[in-house]
Amino acid sequence: MVFFHGDDGRHDVFDVARLPLPGWWIPLAGALAQRTGPGGGLRTRTSASGAWWCLGRWMRFLAGLPTPPAHPGQLTAAHVEGFLRLRTVQAGEETALSDVQDIKLLLDMDAIVSLLPSEARDSLARRQPRSRSAGQAGYSDGEFARLLSAARADVAQIRDRIRAGEELVRRHRDGRRDAKAAMLADMAASGRVPRLRDASLHDHLPRRIELAQHLFLHLRDLPPLMVLLCALTERNGETLKELPAQHKILDRRAVEVTLIKRRRGPRRWFETVTWEIGPAHRALHTPGGLYLLIHKLTARSRAFCGSDRLFCAWRNILEVGGDDVDEHYPPFADKLWGGEVKLAKWAGDRRRPLLADASEGAEAGPLQVTFNRIKTSTEVRRTRRLGGHLPSAAKSNTMQVLFRNYLGGDPVIVEWAHQVLGEALVDAEQSALRAHEQVLNAAGGSLRVVTGPADAEVLQHEAGLDAESARRAADGELDTAWTACGDHAHPATGKTCEASFLACFHCGNCLVTRDHLPRLLGLMDALAERRQAMSEAEWWRRYGPAWAAIRHDILAKFSPAEREHAERAKPADALLDLVEEPWEQL
Predict the structure, then answer these.
(1) Would the N or C end of the chain have less CB density within 10 A of its end CB?
(2) What beta strand segments (E) does 178-288 contain?
């Protein structure tokens, strides 16, 4: 018998003797005790029960073999492979790998690992960790805004409803005669909600719930409260369900709470957080203000059930003869999972149901509300608010977990990243263009670009060349790597130019005709390829000004027909490697 006492305050007992193959019982019990003990990795009842169920599947598989291994020493690699194949057929590859991983972790415990043959241990060790799929995508900005608005509206109604009930109780205490107030005062003192004997069987339950809701939270009140609390605190549903009622108020500005953050490993569960309270009228907009409001709304139920948890509520118990005080209870004390908080039902049953964004060609469907999607949405928005700096954005998780489980692949963060990248590229392009213009102004003022047919007469008139230079340019005698040079004396120095051919695009002596277009398009392709092989910052520093000059000052001046004709004749550029110094390419 393995007795489990979890860090979450929950207990269980695992009877290993209920499993088949008695030769495994003693070492398995020792291994399970280590795995679920104070120093083990399974410290919640849910995780311990999951390992127990997986162990049961493993032992039943072994017992069902034609020749089952009677004790751990008879385990073989074939047994491990057979279990993996069976679970793959039954539940899929992901679940099968997860089960084998759980069995491996259990059989790695000191109480049993030395009893296993080496081939069986090697087979278990060969199992690769299961791939982790990206976390559930969050909500769009519109969906998230509608979700928060709906939650705030419903929480405000809950708050006002209980305030009105408390006001009736106060009026009764002040001596005012009112039958309803007297009934509520008795409920407030005893915690018992009257059973309405004058009601029919059909409407007894709805009327009794309505009466209880004047003073107590009902289970149906939990979804909007928890949705809003999840969004404001940026904590997951598990942590919210474990919130304690005990807290400290710091200088009337913040509330200090010690919460449980699961899956951090043994003895690393507890974390003290401080949440802003804010002014009273902003209680539905600050995490501390909402926490204190929920604490007040649940105070009566918590006093009757004696719980130390934040969330306590009233539920209807149909059995006659029981103590109605038992109807007050902490819904998450026994188990965190279950159907008490029906977020999807709340979202769909509202007077104005929550709808997802309409997709193209289809109407908007119901909004799927889950704690995971809310948590992802808050992580995405905090990361976006902090400019994408992961060390700052990682609040309750590591950077790796934040990106893998929340940010990676989320549509909102992808769209924002594309926008940021697009803005950065525009800034880089504008910076390169300004650098090109500054150099060009210092070296002659403007490029000479001649569109259309470019014979000697046209070049003489439109490019300002003398008759001899125009003839030579028309014959291609002045061509350099990608353009032509009207004068080899640099306009800024008056001396023979010794600059790189890439610097021609910033020189007033540069001459471009449509005959140069094929080579220029080939150069643009070469620059694009070079961009894939180096960092963005280095590419913009080395090639950005020339690229901006070609794109804005040259190609933009030619007609689409001229560019299309040149596209068919462009060469595979081989000159870019030749015009740069060899050491620049290292």
Answers:
(1) C
(2) 248-250, 254-260, 270-276
Q: Which residue is associated with the tokens 């030395």?
A: 114
Q: In Å, how far from its chain's centre is CA 313?
A: 31
Q: CA torsion, points 222, 227, 228, 231, in degrees to nearest 10?
A: 150
Six token digits for residue 223? 């979804």
**Which residue in the block uniquely carries the two structure tokens 């108020």?**
249
Residue 484, φ and ψ in degrees, nearest 5? -120, 160
Walking along the chain (586 residues) 10 residues at a time, the average pLDDT comes out as 83 92 94 88 83 93 93 92 90 86 90 91 70 64 92 96 93 84 90 74 76 92 95 90 92 90 63 91 94 95 92 79 74 71 89 83 81 87 72 64 62 64 66 71 71 83 82 86 82 76 82 89 88 82 85 86 88 75 49
C-alpha to C-alpha distances, 139 to 112, 377, 382, nearest whole angstrom: 47, 6, 14
Enumerate the β-bridge partners of residue 466.
none
Q: Cα–Cα distance between 427 and 433 in angstroms, integer?
A: 10
Q: Which residue reads 């008139």 in tokens?
A: 461
C-alpha to C-alpha distance for 449 and 173, rounded to whole angstroms: 94
Q: Phi and psi dihedrals of 147, rounded to 5?
A: -65, -45
Element containing residue 14 per DSSP (H, E): strand 11-14
Question: How many other β-carbons are positioned within 10 Å of the β-carbon of residue 479?
Answer: 17
Cβ(107)–Cβ(55) below 8 Å = no
- Residue whose structure tokens are 């695992």: 14
* H runs (alpha helix) in 386-509: 390-393, 399-402, 411-442, 456-462, 467-474
483 contacts: CB under 8 Å, gap ≥ 6: 504, 505, 510, 511, 512, 516, 520
Backbone angles phi, psi at 193, to 5 degrees: -95, 125
Q: In the chain, what is the straight-line distance between the N-terminal and C-terminal CA atoms, in Å?
A: 68
Rounded distance, CA 441 to CA 507, Å? 8
Q: Which residues of 540-565 are buried (b: 16+ CB within 10 A; e: fewer)?
A: bebbbbbbbbbeebbbeebeeeeeee
DSSP percent split of the chain into helix, strand, coil, nearest 5: 55, 10, 35
Give the pair of three-digit tokens for residue 310. 């934040």
**How many CB atoms sit inside 10 A of residue 417's CB?**
15
Contact in structure between 440 and 507 (CB atoms under 8 Å) = yes
Question: Is the torsion defined by CA of 149, 153, 158, 163 positive or negative?
Answer: positive
